[in-house]
Amino acid sequence: xxxxxxxxAFQDLFATDPDGQPVYLSKVSGPGYMxxxxxxxxxxxxxxxxxxxxRSDSATVAASDHFLLDQKSFLITVKxxxxxxxxxxxxxxxxxxxxxxxNATDADGDPLTFSRAFGPYFVxxxxxxxxxxxxxxxxxxxxxxxxxxxxxxxxxVKDDLSSSVRATFRITVVNSVGGGLGARGLFTSRFxxxxxxxxxxxxxxxxxxxxxxxxxxxxxxDFYSGDVSVFFGIQGGTFADRVPVLRGPRPRSxxxxxxxxxxxxxxxxxxxxxxxxxxxxxxxxxxxxxxxVDYPVGLNCAAIAVGDVNGDGYPDVAGASxxxxxxxxxxxxxxxxxxxDLPSRRFPIDMKLEDMNQDGAxxxxxxxxxxxxEVFRGHGDGTFEGPTPVSSGAASLTVGDLNSDGYMDLVLAxxxxxxxxxxxxxxxxxxxxxxxxxxxxxxxxxxxxDFxxxxRxxxxxxxxxxxxxxxxxxxxxxGFVPSGGFGTGVGPAAIVSADLNLDGASDILTSNYGSGxxxxxLANADGSFSGAGVFNASDHPAAAVPADFxxxxxxxxxxxDHQESLISVLYGKTDGGLERVSxxxxxxxxxxxxxxxxxxxxxxxxxxxxxxxxxxxxILNHAGASFGPRTDVPVDRPQAVGLADLNGDGxxxxxxxxxxDYFQVGLSIMxxxxxxxxxxxxxxxxxxxxxxxxAIANFDTDSTLDVVGVTSDGYSSYYVVLLGHGDxxxxxxxxxxxxxxxxxxxxxxxxxxxxxxxxxxxxxxxxPVPSNxxxxxxLGNGDGTFGSPTGFExxxxxxxxxxxxxxxxxRxxxxxANASGNTVSLLLxxxxxxxxTKVDFGVGRYPSGIVAAxxxxxxxxxxxxxxxxxGTVTVLKNRGTAPxxxxxxxxxxxxxxxxxxxxxxxxxxxxSDPEGSQLTFSWGFGDGAEATGPQPLHTYRGxxxxxxxxxxxxxxxxxxxxxxxxxSAALPGVAFLGDAHRVLPVGVGPPFTCIQVEPAQHSYxxxxxxxxxxVLKSPGTGDVSEIHAxxxxxxxxxxxxxxxxxxxxxxxxxxxxxxxxxxxRGRTAVPVAVEGGLTTGARFRAPLEITVVGTGxxxxxxxxxxxxxxxxxxxxxxxxxxxxxVQLFDAAGRLVRTIANWERAESGLIDVPLDGLSDxxxxxxxxxxxxxxxxxxxxxxxxxxxxx
Length: 1188
Hints:
Layout: E1 2-4, E2 9-12, E3 24-29, E4 34-37, E5 45-48, E6 55-64, E7 69-79, E8 83-84, E9 90-93, E10 98-105, E11 113-118, E12 123-129, E13 134-141, E14 149-158, E15 164-174, E16 192-195, E17 200-206, E18 215-220, E19 227-231, E20 233-234, E21 238-239, E22 243-247, E23 251-257, E24 266-271, E25 277-281, E26 293-296, E27 303-307, E28 316-321, E29 324-330, E30 336-343, E31 348-354, E32 363-368, E33 372-378, E34 384-393, E35 396-400, E36 409-414, E37 419-423, E38 425-426, E39 429-430, E40 435-438, E41 443-449, E42 458-463, E43 468-474, E44 480-487, E45 492-498, E46 507-512, E47 517-521, E48 533-536, E49 541-547, E50 556-561, E51 566-572, E52 578-585, E53 590-596, E54 605-610, E55 615-619, E56 621-622, E57 626-627, E58 631-634, E59 636-644, E60 653-659, E61 665-670, E62 682-685, E63 693-697, E64 706-712, E65 717-722, E66 734-738, E67 741-748, E68 757-763, E69 772-778, E70 790-796, E71 798-804, E72 813-818, E73 823-827, E74 829-831, E75 834-835, E76 839-842, E77 847-853, E78 862-867, E79 872-876, E80 896-899, ...
Parallel strand pairs: 1-7, 9-15, 80-86, 87-94, 88-94
Antiparallel strand pairs: 2-5, 3-6, 4-5, 6-7, 8-10, 10-13, 11-14, 12-13, 14-15, 16-47, 16-76, 17-18, 18-19, 19-22, 20-21, 23-24, 24-25, 25-26, 27-28, 28-29, 29-30, 31-32, 32-33, 33-34, 35-36, 36-37, 37-40, 38-39, 41-42, 42-43, 43-44, 45-46, 46-47, 48-79, 49-50, 50-51, 51-52, 53-54, 54-55, 55-58, ...
Pfam families: FG-GAP_3, PKD_4
Domain PKD: 887-974
Keywords: Glycoprotein, Repeat, Signal
């Protein structure tokens, strides 16, 4: 056997006995790491588990039947693992290449193979020489323009047994000098957000690695996952991902100072754990530190200050604990001697060492929780007097010369009162009078800097309750004027300022306790900070949908407010901004929103799901001038809505996830009528707690639309796929398992294989420690099934996502709105359905909705978020390169059908532009007529088959599609004669004859018929080819044939019928048609066949129910009024009955009843009988049969 050290190998054992006796296997000899295992599994086996070190050992096993014994020996060879030389960290500029040689050895002389186990897509690792004992490989790094950041890469080396060792190194990708910000600069945002850790509460800035760029050091004060992390500065004003330099519970605050005089920044940290102490870490000059040295301070050590209190030129350290402040004097080598304790109050929260009165001695200022601030006056020898209270409570304190008098002033932040208080200093120290300034809702931390570069100190103040920073511009005398603010991450706890991007303006960094992030806010030249467009929407915007509602070529936005129960419409402006122009009420608590042209007027309409109203609101757009009023469709607990043409008729249909009753949930499908209304819903029950999000796309190969939804059973999350039949119905849903909690699903082709994939936002809710969420990507198989999920990290509590090619590299990217981080995570696509490390852009408070659209018409996809807690929408403008223009695709719809005279609705809504550009539409209808617009109506004047063409253009490129329109002359109807008019004699009979007419297959409504247009057509049978009806016989609607379809009576006069059938001779079946006009502009046509008795015939007669069993009818024509006699004879010629003997009978068809009786009222026997009719025109005879 051959096995690697520290690996496990197995070999099955086989033994037989010729006598059929039981065989027992056992170890006879061998190393201790070799065992024979019996009684476990189907057969005995050898287990080998060697520890470190190469060797060859012999082993022997035996088989026995307790009487005889057989032994076999074998050799175990233990091979050693390869040894991989640790790769060095690399720094690479964007759009360049860099290489590093890899080296590994194998003590056994085996060839080795190098590969990448983990790392970014732009890192390739290959084997250059597999060797036999010594091998080499190559790391090849090719970062693109937007790949700025710090990336961990793991190299793996394997031998011929596939045993491997790994090593991890870091690659820092930076920009070229003067270059942009890469992926972090792709959008203009309020701030850039980086993950900081658990509970970031403090921050300081300094050049820790001496590269000329400012680095950030952040304390994460969580009890279980606390640490101090360094963020190394990158050109452009941002930072690489964090590197922990000190781990342990509850680090509260930190300060930098050169404690040993080597001109390298050292670190002092206040640790509030195990009694409380100050940890001192000496810097190496590369951003790393030597092991810490701890100095006890006392319980609740929460604040620290650094300064030379004894004038020896070396910075000392003061740590505040519960009941005293401990001052530790520096010996000059970074070692601190015996402490000096100053009595103080409980619960210190902030502390500063500053020479307030410029006497050369530092004062010690301490702020306490819910207590007055105290000032200890320094003597310059390490001793202090006091304290002197300052009559103002504070959450933080900052010191600086605010009025340019050369003395330090004090700024205190009071969150309970919503103000900052300023105490001006002088030669005797701080004055007793204070000035108060409003500074937001809950001012916490402050920093002093000249933000607007006017030479006068300004203030920046955090507001934890509103997740923002307020800027107050100084007037140079100690007075301040608020100048607005901007957003940060959740719960900003600390704030620092410096020129991070070396542009001469002071920038801001905040540590955000609630979201576990730092926010980098780069200043503009005028001292403002917001890079994103922020626009008022409504009080609580939750979701939005983009569309060009007024068809002006600019993208607009409709925003649903779930608390105010309204939709706000914001129209786009030429500068990329948004202006709220109208609002319309919805049902209670609208959240899901969709847009589409429901009534085919060319203007996008709106649909919202109203969770608390148990309804869906349909809101029509009136040519962009106004919206509504709404029409509510009842749906219980609607959680998601979608608009799509599910049955291919060119009309948008509505899909809603909701409930049918208290116990049943699923999807409601409502087919659109094309006028903004919908047919009755069909219900698709789904076993779940309800669909919280849905997407409509084609997931298989049948070209029909399918539906996917996110659901759960109360314990786990699932996705359910319903494949469409193309008629608005769906197959039973198939479920796929999803772990954790999921919010939204989108469907698009993420790996560009022509198959639709899925992306879900998800998170693990584990308060109070922030936990980043994730996007799960499931690649489609093209048959309605999907692969296993692959997760990519996002920000905290992701709520919504969008997909587009944001950086114009031809690969789909993802953008995710993180509600509890006040950020959007951008994940640039690597191709193949994978994505790079997230970059977080700051937006407004609690972004719960996100859309991707070209808001300013520059060809680049921007991002818009709905900030639910801020009452705003944020537009992140894309600063990247616009993608090359591609030709649009025309889709003329169809084939169409219709009736001459009736408008035919055509739709080009299936047309698309790869860049989402606004399209123009030009139609040709095949009859010489033309039109423009996406959904024209055209009326054909005649029947036939016409070729329809559609040309679309994005302004520079175009596309063309053709289809057909088949137009019939009239809508079909059904006509029949009543019992009284089964035979029509020409020129005789009743004054009018009525024909019953009804629509065939509901092709029209009876109420649409125009009575004055009804005609009876029979070409070639008389003097005229058509005659007009004289009006309906009865205004009532009948159903004489009892087929469930109502008909009307079209009645025609005797003289008109005589002219229509004047050429008919004898008894003839004549095909005719009843036609007429409809109020819709169409016509109807109802064909039938009439038995006509033509002009000149006087001997017409017929017997109904022949043979006669009990009763029958003899019908004959009496051409002129006069006497009539009807007689019945048997086969022998004997008269058996005189049926009628009238002195005068009117002209026309006469019905005579036959009862089968003789003149004596006796029943006539079965047989053949003859009838004779005598009138003024002569004698008519015929025969009939009686059957008993």
